[in-house]
């Protein structure tokens, strides 16, 4: 191993040791030769330098030439710019003059264009929501191009705008009958004869229609029709021939009132708006009605029996008056004081049955409007919560609370009013029966006693 | 002229909504009762009084317990006949303003319905509800006020008639 390394080293040394000649072909051997060589070299060098100098001078002259040329160019351009500036200013002056000239010439026309565009804008919603569109459906496109384009309208556009306005005016004064497809309440699309009164009302087969521009433009039958008087007028109107004079209802809001009619909620939805207070009030009303019914049946049958008893002499046990009178017939021989007490006791025993349920009815009639008031307050609380959260900007957000407030009030009143009337009728009836028991029973007893004693012979039954 | 007036009534009833019909019926009922009461008080009642007085004077004695009870019975019957329906009339005069209030609230519901459908800007939509509210309130108050005087007057007359009967049956 060691020997191998040493031998490689030796080889490398050998290779490096090869002699290399480093200077020119002929290296000077003597000092004279060297001097000669230096001399020659310096001559050569001087020649080279002279050449270089000559080159530099030539280049300098060339640059000078270029500079002169550039300066000349600059001057020329400056000259030109001066000239151009002059023309520019001249032109600008001319332009301003022309502009003022244009302004003077088109002064009133510029306003006209903006007015035309404005008019088209204003007319667009009127036309697109108008019943007339059911007859001539392609009028919106013309108007919207005028209203929305950025270009100045040309004379053709202006004429079309004018024509549309004129058309709308003329049609709003006409009563037309035409054939159009109508969407019925069931959702079918039918081709029907439609009569249109101006831009106000459209009817078909005795029913009022409204015009919807969205989502599908067309005539729609109202699913809630107005009062019967108007329906009758509509039917007569359709039957009438030309030249006949018939009365007809029109919607002066051009369909807004009729479309509101559709959106009014049904009774069921209304009651739901009242919330649990509404249901509770209705439940109380039902309870009160049941009590009233039971009381009515009871008082009515008892009243009839008492009336029958008043014309009878023999007491019947099936009615309060009979039971009171039987106290007398059972104790005929008692003295007056004892009889009086016994009668009072019997009357007192009968009274509660006649009065039962009536105080409950009175309380229910008082409670129902109070519940309505409670609903009003809870509804208002909801409304104000909505206001705190969303602000007053959108009345639709507040409407739930407001409808609860109002609907509960309505339910409360609707329950209270009939109960109040029923209660007064029933308590009138029961008061009368109680009075008969209280005062007339004593009179009848007295009369019977006197009759027995033969003091009074005859009693005029028709008077009593 | 006459038909024009009828049309106006029809128009009023339509503006007032269904509640106005209830007010109309209730006030009609109340007026029938009031008229019936006056008829009873001034025509039927005096005839009955005369019969009862004649019967009372047939009696030989007016001082015994029996006589007192019979007299009380007579007066009770008179007063019960006189007082009939008075409670109902009073209840109706109390009910009519409540019906008016009901109409007010129903009208306000219509107003808020139109508000929730078409926003606060559509004042045309409000007009129907407001007319219902105002017309029913007015009708309820007017009919109740007209009945109030007569119900109070009837009360007074009946009290006097009963006192008179007490005096006459002696």
Automatic annotation (TrEMBL), chain A:
User: Do the record's keywords include Transmembrane?
Assistant: yes
Principal location listed in the UniProt entry: membrane
Identify the InterPro entries for this entry.
Answer: ExbB/TolQ_transport, MotA/TolQ/ExbB-rel, MotA_ExbB_proton_chnl
Keywords of this protein's UniProt record, alphabetized?
Answer: Cell membrane, Coiled coil, Membrane, Protein transport, Transmembrane, Transmembrane helix, Transport
Keyword Transport (UniProt): yes
Q: Where are the transmembrane segments?
A: 276-300, 358-381, 401-422
Q: Which residues form a coiled coil?
A: 57-87
Membrane topology recorded in Swiss-Prot or TrEMBL: Multi-pass membrane protein
Q: Which GO CC annotations does the UniProt entry carry?
A: plasma membrane
Identify the domain of life: Bacteria
Give the location in the cell: Cell membrane; Membrane
| Single GO biological process annotation from the record | protein import
Q: Which parts of the sequence belong to the MotA/TolQ/ExbB proton channel domain?
A: 329-438
Q: Which PANTHER family would you find in this protein's record?
A: MOTA_TOLQ_EXBB PROTON CHANNEL DOMAIN-CONTAINING PROTEIN (PTHR30625:SF11), PROTEIN TOLQ (PTHR30625)
Q: What family, per the record? A: Belongs to the exbB/tolQ family.
What is the name attached to this protein's record? MotA/TolQ/ExbB proton channel
Provenance organism: Candidatus Nitrosoglobus terrae
Supply the source organism's classification.
Answer: Bacteria, Pseudomonadati, Pseudomonadota, Gammaproteobacteria, Chromatiales
From TrEMBL, chain B:
One GO location term (cellular component): plasma membrane
- Residues crossing the lipid bilayer are 20-40, 85-109, 129-150
Main localization, broad class: membrane
Protein location: Cell membrane; Membrane
Keywords (alphabetical) are: Cell membrane, Membrane, Protein transport, Transmembrane, Transmembrane helix, Transport
Residue ranges of the MotA/TolQ/ExbB proton channel domain? 59-164
Query: How does the entry describe its membrane topology?
Result: Multi-pass membrane protein
InterPro entries reported in the protein's UniProt record: ExbB/TolQ_transport, MotA_ExbB_proton_chnl
Per the record, the GO terms for biological process are: protein import
Family designation: Belongs to the exbB/tolQ family.
Quote the PANTHER family the UniProt record gives: PROTEIN TOLQ, TONB2 ENERGY TRANSDUCTION SYSTEM INNER MEMBRANE COMPONENT EXBB
Protein name, UniProt field = MotA/TolQ/ExbB proton channel
